[in-house]
Write a structure and sequence with these properties.
The complex is a heterodimer of chains A (about 300) and B (about 290).
Chain A (H helix, E strand, L loop, with lengths): L2 H23 L8 H7 L4 H8 L3 H4 L1 H17 L1 H7 L1 H14 L10 H9 L12 H16 L17 E4 L4 E7 L16 E10 L5 E6 L1 H11 L4 H12 L5 H17 L2 E5 L2 H4 L9 H6 L1
Antiparallel strand pairs in A: 1-5, 2-3, 3-4
Chain B lengths: L8 E4 L2 H12 L9 E3 L10 H12 L2 E4 L13 H13 L5 E4 L20 H18 L3 E4 L14 H12 L2 E5 H11 L3 H6 L6 E6 L3 E3 L4 E3 L8 H14 L4 E3 L8 H26 L5
Parallel strand pairs in B: 1-2, 1-10, 2-3, 3-4, 4-5, 5-6, 6-7, 7-10
Antiparallel strand pairs in B: 8-9
Helix pairs in contact in B: 1-2, 4-5, 8-9
Classes of the chains: A mainly alpha (about 300), B alpha/beta (about 290).
Chain lengths: ~300, ~290
């Protein structure tokens, strides 16, 4: 056999070992009749026998370590969500996630996002309240806003213009919920369960780096969603009017201008964007921006 | 201007005491620590107070960089976005080298948040060496690999671990970040002499040393490298003997679980420093012809 073919064969053997170890690391218990199971997983017989010679509890060490790491990250970043379902339900849910859809991001802090996306269709199966998916998304939204990078700001802000984009601050995130979930987090403790209500929010960080949010009416939300995606301001205003069934009249323009002025006053909007790249809020520093916006 | 770290005992920078450290720096009460080790993954792709805090630490202390998620042994292609983010981080803080672990953390597009062991095979060594070179080239600076703690050896071994490590180091011309606690944990779990293991490594490649604590897990009958307890005497003895062989290199006290208040951690770092200096004294004595 040529050296090239030998190396290719050795690499395939290596691949099978790595896949088996990864599978052990995402499973709480090693399989019965381990060596046989490892062969079924694709391992070479010699490798399966060597690895299968370890006691099953030893083979389960990585599964336990990884399970605890992910559980800890979820508890840390989703405390309000976890408080509403309890550890007894959370642990098997995290374990199912690891077995069905192991993480894709190299950042541990991204794992709760991936978990929440996976769990969004599974909350009902554990009899969770209907607003739980919104709570989870809101918690992760505030986490993202708290840590996202700021963007460069213009030395001299240019006034907004219909034929230009809008330069938003990098911490700005827009999100729509089916419950008034933000009221759970306003620090008053006045509600335990958010009411079902279509809710649109803009979030950002203030000058002191504290996360804040403001509820938006649908017209403003429609405009801001479009300009955050890189649309020209004039086009965004026209498309938003059409989306909400409003005429493009002076009342409409005044309403939108008022919201943009408030955002500028808060420091969330710098002015006209010189190009499309500046206008578009990218996902590079906030990779779950799309899911955070609408679930 | 980069601050150079040639030796001494530093501490792994952790969230648990970052606020306290930053406050002390800003109030002119910065503790005497020769350097901190920073994990880029904790700070990359982030802004706001988190980066302000790191900037404050970087303005006062030299830093060395040590990552967790490069997954050098994986057969998946290197994650270009991730490597680019590491490179930008290293550039921003002018960090002269980067290190990560000789392990893999996922395959087939998945990323498992742990340091998973590689088989001790020719193919794994060849592949890891190639990847280490690739990482070094992409980062544009030296890259070192750390020996990991592990709880099983996957597959039929084709060589001893010391030979595996040496192959990867020499084929990639990389530096070795020697974790003496990892060697100790593995020696207890697999029944070998930890000093014989260290002596079999190319110690001229050691560019940094890690020390940490571990815990015994009775239900599994093994030691787990938790970084959640104080460093124990056998690990200190390994540190001293290693320093006597390598001479002055940066030594980092790592603590990731049950992280004590900063002052307690600095007291433990002072104990590490005593053993570090004893190792240097042994080296000096040996160079004068005495027994080390």
């Amino acid at each position: 056999m040529s050296e090239e073919r030998t190396q290719a064969s050795e690499t395939e053997r290596l691949r099978a070992v790595l896949r088996a170890v990864q599978r052990l690391a995402t499973t709480p218990e090693a399989p019965q009749n381990t060596a046989r199971a490892l062969i079924d997983w694709g391992m070479d017989e010699r490798d399966a026998e060597a690895l299968g010679a370890f006691p099953r509890e030893r083979l389960a060490v990585y599964g336990g370590l990884v399970g605890r790491t992910v559980l800890g990250a979820v508890q840390n970043q989703l405390p309000a969500t976890v408080a509403r379902i309890g550890g007894e339900q959370l642990r098997p849910l995290v374990q199912s996630y690891l077995e069905e859809e192991p993480p894709r991001s190299p950042y541990l802090r991204d794992v709760p996002f991936e978990f929440a996306i996976w769990a969004a269709t599974r909350w009902q199966a554990i009899d969770a309240p209907p607003f739980l998916a919104d709570i989870a998304r809101f918690e992760l939204l505030t986490f993202a806003v708290a840590s996202v990078e700021r963007r460069a700001r213009p030395d001299t802000p240019a006034p907004l213009a219909a034929n230009q984009g809008v330069w938003l601050e990098g911490t700005v995130h827009l999100a729509r919920f089916s419950h008034a979930v933000h009221l759970l987090f306003d620090g008053t403790g006045r509600i335990d369960a958010p009411e079902p209500k279509e809710t649109m929010l803009v979030l950002d960080r203030d000058a002191g780096d504290d996360v804040r949010w403001m509820e938006l009416a649908r017209p403003a939300f429609e405009v801001l969603t479009r300009v955050a995606g890189g649309a020209l301001l004039g086009e965004a205003i026209a498309a938003a009017a059409q989306a909400v069934g409003r005429p493009m009249d002076a009342v409409w323009i005044d309403e939108i201008s008022g919201v943009l002025a408030v955002l500028a006053e808060r420091g969330a909007l710098f002015g006209a964007a010189p190009d499309a790249q500046t206008a578009c809020l990218s996902g590079e520093s906030s990779p779950f921006r799309g899911w955070l916006a609408s679930g | 201007m980069a601050k150079v770290v040639n030796g001494g005992v530093g501490v792994g920078l952790r969230w648990d005491f970052l606020d306290d450290l930053v406050l002390r720096i800003r109030e002119g009460r910065a503790p005497e620590v020769p350097f901190f080790e920073v994990t880029p993954e904790n700070h990359m792709r982030r802004g706001g107070a988190l980066i302000d805090a790191l900037d404050t630490v970087a303005s006062r202390y030299p830093m060395v960089s040590h990552g967790l998620a490069m997954s050098v042994g994986s057969l998946d292609p290197l994650d270009s976005a991730f490597v680019g983010q590491i490179a930008r981080f290293l550039d921003r803080y002018e960090l002269p080298f980067h290190s990560d672990h000789l392990c893999f953390s996922g395959i087939c597009g998945r990323k498992v948040p742990d340091l998973l062991p590689l088989p001790l095979s020719r193919a794994a060594a060849r592949h890891a060496a190639r990847r280490v070179r690739e990482v070094r080239d992409r980062l544009g600076r030296p890259f070192a690999i750390e020996n990991i703690s592990y709880y099983l050896t996957p597959g039929a071994p084709e060589m001893p671990e010391t030979e595996f490590l040496t192959r990867v180091l020499e084929e990639s011309d990389a530096g070795l970040l020697l974790d003496v606690n990892n060697v100790f944990v593995n020696s207890q779990n697999f029944g070998f002499d930890p000093w014989a293991f260290i002596e079999a490594l190319p110690l001229d490649r050691v560019i940094e040393i890690h020390v940490a604590g571990h815990e015994h897990v009775p239900e599994r009958g093994i030691l787990i490298d938790t970084h959640g307890a104080d460093v124990i005497d056998p690990v200190y003895r390994l540190l001293r003997k290693t320093i006597a062989r390598t001479g002055p290199v940066p030594v980092v006290l790592e603590r990731d679980n049950h992280v004590p208040p900063l002052d307690d951690l600095l007291r433990e770092a002072a104990v590490v420093r005593e053993h570090y200096e004893l190792g240097l004294a042994d080296r000096e004595q040996a160079s004068r012809g005495g027994a080390a």
